[in-house]
Specification:
- It is a single chain.
- By secondary structure, the protein is mainly β.
- It folds into two domains: 68 residues, no CATH class; 233 residues, Beta-galactosidase, Chain A, domain 5 (Distorted Sandwich).
- The strands form five sheets. The protein has a nine-stranded antiparallel beta sheet with strand order 12-13-14-15-24-21-20-17-18, covered by helices on one side. Strands 11-10-16-23-22-19 form a six-stranded antiparallel beta sheet, with no helix packed on it. The protein has a five-stranded antiparallel beta sheet with strand order 5-6-7-8-9, with no helix packed on it.
Length: 396
């Protein structure tokens, strides 16, 4: 039986007090409530404090872990319910924190897991809302139910976890004498809600406020899942709710480390009709999707003995103004350098755009894992359809 959040909070506070008393007055400590109440985690401090106590552990923090006590097991949620149909969805989402994960279960025991906002950005802050990235609850890792590959979006093939997408590189950007870069953690989280959660369909929304000088944007995000798919649809609507014109670009990208978390070795780009081994732009008039393929780059003497897993991202609505493969997040080299870094990147950018007060723009992306051609072994994008029914029902 699951404890209610109020009971979890009470247990957490009692345990945290006990740890503080055990540490005594000789140690400096910092208590950080993330409102996940997954457990009690005692971590090494950050230099200011000797110790840090938190109620949830995000990916990358496990190296600092000294002591853990779990309040909520997740084993039953990683497994498919015995009463669920062969293809089904399960969802664990905390509306208050705007964090959680969705699992697509398949008849052969494989599964695709997508985590949202369970990561720490380079700035040291954690986002909230529908931003792909982060880990499953640490209790699963400790029980050897998952592996480092099971972060961001990952696929369990029955034998091992395969990394598909990492923590998203997403931001609102402005130009000018004082340019701004607003990543997810700097977007004010206004709340989230589960709109639908059945075996067949999951729909979640999150809202965010973005300040750009005197301009104010409202970002509404919707993640739409269907049982049996190996992708989900992300709808992002940006509305100018202020009184002055807003000028900005919206960017979405990732160095996904396809195949194995922590390394880009083997990763090359792929399009509908070609494998891309060098940096460069993507013709968005010709192509409507792109991906990263864990195959090996012959230009840098990589063999083709990698996992052959592949990611894809498809733009279903307004096409990006710029799309590219590169060695570094955010920009590409026109000199067609081989994809060789440990941050081989796929990026999309819409803008710069001007948005008058009251106006909005909507971006629709299908984000997921590619299939594989049985003969060639090369990636094949799954069939993707615009989710008209869910869009009318939830996005409007």
């Amino acid at each position: 039986m699951k404890l209610r959040i109020s009971a979890l909070k009470k247990n957490y506070l009692f345990a945290a007090v006990a740890i503080v008393l055990a540490l005594g007055g000789a140690a400096a400590y910092h208590v950080e409530l993330r409102n996940g109440y997954e457990g009690i985690f005692l971590l090494k401090g950050d230099g200011i404090s000797s110790f840090r106590i938190t109620d949830d552990l995000f990916h990358g923090e496990q190296e600092k872990l000294l002591l853990s006590f779990f309040l909520r097991p997740h084993d039953s949620e990683l497994a498919q319910s015995s009463s669920a149909p062969p293809m089904s969805l399960s969802c664990n989402w905390n509306e208050k924190t705007g964090r959680g994960y969705v699992i697509n279960h398949y008849p052969n025991g494989t599964k695709l897991v997508t985590c949202f906002s369970r990561f720490i950005e380079g700035s040291g802050r954690a986002p909230s809302g529908l931003f792909v990235g982060g880990n499953l609850p640490f209790s699963l890792r400790l029980a050897k139910r998952t592996a480092p590959n099971a972060t961001g979006m990952s696929f369990y093939d029955g034998a091992r976890w395969n990394h598909i997408w990492c923590s998203v590189n997403e931001a609102i950007l402005t130009d000018g004498p004082q340019p701004l870069n607003v990543p997810p953690s700097r977007m004010k989280f206004l709340g989230s809600r589960i709109l639908s959660a059945t075996d067949e369909k999951v729909a979640i929304m999150s809202n965010h406020e973005v300040k750009l000088g005197d301009a104010t944007l409202l970002m509404e995000r919707y993640a739409l899942f269907s049982a049996g798919d190996i992708h989900f649809t992300l709808v992002t609507r940006i509305r100018n709710v202020g009184k002055v014109e807003a000028n900005f670009s919206y960017v979405y990208g990732d160095e996904p480390w396809v195949g194995n978390y922590g390394t880009s070795r083997g990763d090359v780009g792929w399009l509908q009709d070609s494998i891309i081994n060098v940096e460069g732009s993507i013709d968005t008039d010709k192509y409507s999707y792109a991906g990263i393929f864990d195959y090996g780059n012959p230009l840098i003497n990589e063999s083709h003995n990698f996992t052959r897993m592949a990611s894809f991202i498809e733009w279903l609505g307004e096409k990006p103004d710029v799309a590219f493969f590169s060695n570094n997040p955010g920009y590409f080299d026109d000199r067609k350098k081989p994809l060789s870094s440990d941050t081989r990147f796929l990026g999309l950018q819409w803008g710069p755009r001007s948005l008058a007060p009251g106006d909005s723009r909507t971006y629709v992306l299908a984000i997921g894992m590619a299939g594989r051609d049985a003969m060639s072994g090369f990636p094949v994008k799954p069939q993707v359809e615009f989710p008209h029914e869910a869009y009318r029902k939830f996005v409007k």
